[in-house]
Automatic annotation (TrEMBL):
Boundaries of every HECT domain copy: 504-662
Organism: Camelus bactrianus (Bactrian camel)
Chief place where the protein resides: nucleus
Locations listed in the record: Nucleus
PANTHER family: G2_M PHASE-SPECIFIC E3 UBIQUITIN-PROTEIN LIGASE, PHD FINGER PROTEIN
InterPro entries, per database record: EPHD, HECT_dom, Hect_E3_ubiquitin_ligase, PHD-type_Zinc_Finger, PHD_PHF7/G2E3-like, PHF7/G2E3_ePHD, Znf_FYVE_PHD, Znf_PHD
A Pfam family the protein falls into: zf-HC5HC2H
Keywords: Metal-binding, Nucleus, Transferase, Ubl conjugation pathway, Zinc, Zinc-finger
Gene Ontology MF term list: ubiquitin-protein transferase activity; zinc ion binding
Domain of life: Eukaryota
Record protein name field: G2/M phase-specific E3 ubiquitin-protein ligase isoform X4
Length: 664
């Protein structure tokens, strides 16, 4: 664990005072006061593992160090085993480094003891580790453990920034300006993934080297390499959740309780005797409800049984009617004209793996809210790869468990029953569904694998046959494996070679997942309608919905009953203020508050969103019937304050509940 070349420095009495020349006896140690001992490098007694690393005291030598202060010091290296000295750094080496640093003045606080120096040529800045953090220096916890001052630190360069609005940090979900700075970093593998530096560091500490990866595409190699370059410490340890004893013990518990309204068992609802009429059968969909065989008139354990809640979701969709039509941009075909209007409203029974009944049980909400969450799960699942425009990935485990088919089926059902637009398909994936893979030509943007993309770029930029043949020889094993090895006789052969690699990687490689996904999308005749009306469905599958405006929301909500004229005027003024950025909420927040959706579904809302005015202080949103009750106030200022307060805090609480549920 080399930490850089040693710097010159002479010893003096001030440095020796920090380290005694002989060890103390065990009777002289005072472990209870170790928390107040100062680090011999930075001379701070702070104990903050996230910022400074673990604080460790060698009681034998009365020596306290922060792990990062020791690791980043420029004139010391690890010469012992991990159990020797402090983290493998020998005591005598630490003494010498403290002595050397005592002659160096910190460029930030102007005090001596600056053991860390900038590695940039001709830069003479030295600093303590905490001072370096304060001045936004970069410390690389890899290789030679280099440190860069605030003038020479590495930066992330973006060739073009097409983001006009703020984007959420994909860890904490707070919105940030999509511009790379010291405190804001971008994923190297997903162009739309942005992070707070502090969020990344906490995640890296918890996940460790084996589980720290991009939160969008799950890439680890490219992602970790870039994060190490930008100063994120990734410890070589297992994830914190893997180290917790019996962390998943609850998952091994079977549900054994009879939940039917009238339990006939005299021994009670928890009585369970296998291979008898009093054996408890669990719901085949959610697994979190049960019944005695006798209580539900089941002849044998092999018979299927669903609880009332799951049964209502599966079968009681009879009130599904033709929703309000919304014409798609650039087309005269309405989405509800395209979807299967004559199909049965019943949902087919799905496998337990595809069902999320536990979400519906513990977090009741509208159908639209559930479908929005479902679409978010699909978009971020490992079944797809890519950043903004996604293609199918090759996941052998998902293929084995038939998850591609389930994903296609869930997407089809969501569209028919008023779910949101997917909006994340690549044009290539959509064209494969409509025109067939054999009639589709992928492009370089479809390749999410960095190494494969680099090979294709190098082939396309080759200028002569010699360079092209050299590249083919370099990638010989890979090209032979994928069946793209070809004889190069002229420079024009590079175009066919690049095309062959693209077709293999984007289409042929995922042929089995594609066929399975395609079969699932045939549910309720959705795939047939997509192929019949490709222009209408292209914007639904490949583009996110248009931004909401005051006019769109005003037209969307119908006024129910005779309402207060002044309150309706306040409502229109409020919508305009939100659009102009004069409110703490957004148009999407208002729609979520009233309907549970952040965009207008392709098939429209059912029932149609409505507003009414009531004598109360705060607004009330009802996601089940898409209604919004407005407060009647005496002034517009009071109206806006009450609307902002209710919407902002309601959505915050719902977000916390969803995060708590998903985390469990």
């Amino acid at each position: 664990m080399a930490c850089g070349a040693a710097r010159e420095g002479k010893s003096d009495a001030a440095a020796l005072e920090l380290l005694p020349s002989a060890p103390r006896t065990m009777n002289e140690n005072k472990p209870g006061g170790s928390q107040n001992l100062a680090c011999v490098f930075c001379r701070k007694n702070d104990d903050c593992p996230i910022k400074y690393g673990e604080k460790k005291t060698n009681e034998k030598w009365d020596l306290t160090v922060h792990y990062y202060c020791l690791l980043m010091s420029s004139g010391i290296w690890q010469r012992g085993k991990e159990e020797e000295g402090v983290y493998g750094f020998l005591i005598e080496d630490i003494r010498k480094e403290v002595t050397r640093a005592s002659k160096l003045k910190c460029s930030v606080c102007k005090k001596t003891g600056a053991s860390i120096g900038c590695v940039a040529p001709r830069c003479k800045r030295s600093y303590h580790f905490p001072c370096g953090l304060q001045k936004e220096c970069i410390f690389q916890f890899t290789g030679n453990f280099a440190s860069f001052c605030w003038n020479h630190r590495p930066v992330q360069i973006i060739t073009s920034n097409n983001y006009r609005d703020s984007l959420p940090c994909t860890i904490c979900l707070e919105f940030i300006a999509p511009t790379p700075t010291y405190s804001v970093l971008r994923s190297p593998c997903c162009k739309n993934a942005w992070f707070h530096r502090d969020c990344l560091q906490v995640q890296a500490i918890n996940a460790g080297v084996f589980f720290f990866r991009c939160t969008v595409c799950n890439n680890s190699d490219i992602f970790q390499k870039e994060m190490l370059r930008m100063g994120i410490h990734i410890p070589e340890k297992d994830a914190s959740w893997e180290l917790e004893e019996n962390a998943y013990q609850d998952l091994l518990q079977h549900y054994e309780h009879c939940d039917v309204r009238r339990c006939r068992c005299k021994e009670g609802r928890d009585y369970n005797v296998p291979d008898s009429k009093w054996e408890i059968k669990r719901c085949q969909c959610c697994g979190s409800s049960g019944t005695h065989l006798a209580c539900s008139s089941l002849q044998s354990w092999e018979q299927n049984w669903e609880c009332l809640e799951c049964r209502s979701i599966l079968y009681n969709s009879g009130d599904f009617q033709k929703p309000k039509k919304h014409t798609l941009p650039n087309t005269n075909v309405g989405i509800t004209d395209c979807l299967l209007e004559e199909s049965s409203p019943k949902l087919p029974r799905q496998s337990p793996g595809a069902q999320r009944k536990d979400l519906l049980r513990e977090h009741p909400g509208s159908k639209q809210e559930f479908l929005c969450l479902l679409m978010q799960q699909l978009e971020n699942s490992p079944l797809f790869e890519g950043s903004l425009s996604k293609n199918l990935s090759l996941n052998s485990q998902a293929l084995k468990e038939n998850l591609y088919y389930e994903a296609g089926k869930m997407l089809a059902i969501s569209l028919v029953h008023g779910g949101p637009s997917p909006g994340f398909f690549s044009k290539t994936l959509f064209n494969c569904l409509v025109y067939g893979p054999e009639n589709t030509q992928p492009i370089l943007d479809d390749v999410s694998d960095f190494d494969v993309a680099q090979i294709i770029i190098r082939i396309n930029t080759a200028t002569n046959v010699a360079d092209l043949n050299s590249l083919v020889n370099e990638c010989y094993n890979y090209l032979e494996l994928i069946g793209c090895l070809r004889l190069i006789t002229s420079i024009s052969d590079k175009y066919m070679l690049a095309k062959d690699i693209l077709v293999y990687h984007v289409i042929k490689r995922v042929q089995a997942p594609f066929e399975s996904f395609k079969q699932g999308l045939k549910t309720l005749g959705v795939l047939e309608k997509i192929q019949t009306y490709p222009e209408a469905f292209c914007s639904i599958f490949c583009h996110k919905p248009e931004n909401l405006s005051a006019k769109i929301l005003s037209d969307l909500f119908t006024v129910r009953t005779l309402s207060d004229v002044q309150a309706l005027g306040f409502w229109n003024s409020y919508l305009q203020a939100v659009e102009d950025g004069k409110s703490t909420v957004t148009m999407e927040d208002i729609l979520i508050f009233a309907t549970g959706c952040n965009s207008i579904p392709p098939a429209g809302f059912k029932p149609t969103p409505s507003i009414e005015c009531l004598h109360m202080d705060f607004p009330v949103g009802n996601n089940c019937n898409n209604s919004l009750a407005l407060p009647i106030t005496s002034t517009y200022k009071e109206f806006q304050e009450n609307m902002d307060f209710a919407i902002k805090n309601t959505l915050r609480l719902e977000k916390e509940e969803n995060s708590h549920f998903i985390g469990h």
